[in-house]
Amino acid sequence: MTYYDQFKKNIVLPQAILTHILDIFPTLVSFNVWLYFYGNESLAPSQIASFLKMTTADVNQAINLLTDSNILTAEFDETTGEMRFDTRPAFAKLDDLLAVASNPTSAKDSKVDDEVSGISDIARLIAAFEPEMPGGLTPINIEELQKWLTDDKFEADLILQALREAALNRKVSLPYIRAILRNWRNDGIVTARDIADNREAREMRQVEQQSDTTLSEDYFNSVDSLRKAWGYDNAQ
Fold it and tell me: 13: which DSSP letter?
C-alpha cells in the first residue's frame, strides 16, 4: 500500500513526509498552509491566515505555490457551496520520491542521482537528530540542517560527528553544534575523516611522549646504577 492510499483518509501525518519536507513543498510557509488543509479540507484561506497570523493574500500566495507544484488541488463542492482543498497529491509526490530513492538505477540522469543523494543525507540527519533534540525537530530545524548541507557544504558525516560531540558534552542544540562545525572548519577539519586522522595523530603523539618519558627515566636510572657500581658516589 502506498502513502497516498494509506493516508488519504487518515489524519495522522507520516514521519516520512517530514523527512522529505523540503523536497515536496516549495516553502515551509506553504507546508504550514497545506497542513491546515490536511486537517480540514474545507477551511477558508482567511481562517488559516488568522491561525498563522498572516494576511489572506499571503495565504493565497502559498496556495498558488502549492497548486502550481501539483501538491494541492482545489475543488468546488456544489452540495455545500464551499471550496475544498485536496492534500493527497503531496503523498503521491512522496511515493514518487521514495520509489526513486529505493531504486536509484531507474534515475534517468546524474541530476536525479544527486537529488537522491541529497534526500538520503537529510534523511540520515533527521533520523539522528530527532531523538536527541529536546521536543524533537521543527520544520525550521529541518530547514537549518538542509542549509548546513547545501549552503555551508558540511558533510553529513561531519554533522553527525558534531552531534555526537554535543551529546557527549550534554549540550545538544543547533547553535552549539553549528559552533562546533565552524570551529572545526577554522582548524582545517572539513570531513569526518579529518576527525579520525586528528584523533590518530593525537594518540601517536601521546604514545611518543610516554615513550620519551620512559626512556629518559630509564637512562637516568642506568647512570645512577653505573655511578654506584664504579664508586663515584663514594669518591671524596
Answer: P
Distance (Å) of CA 100 to CA 97, 113, 123, 174? 5, 9, 14, 30
Place of cell 517530514: 18
Query: Cβ atoms within 10 A of the Cβ of 181, count?
Result: 21
**Mean pLDDT value across residues 131-139:** 82
* d(C-alpha 3, C-alpha 14), whole Å: 8
C-alpha 169/C-alpha 68 separation (Å) is 46
**The whole model's pTM is what?**
0.45
Model confidence at 116, pLDDT cuts 50, 70, 90, reads: very low
Contacts of 62 (CB under 8 A, 6+ apart): 27, 29, 30, 32, 33
User: Which residue, among 114, 29, 35, 176, has the nearest Cα to 184 in the 3D structure?
Assistant: 176
Q: Report the b/e string of 120-156 with b at 16+ CB within 10 A.
A: ebbbebbebbeeeeeeebebebbebbbebbeeeebbb
Q: Is 103 helix (H, G, I), strand (E, B) or coil?
A: coil
User: Which residues are paired to 85 by β-bridges?
Assistant: 74
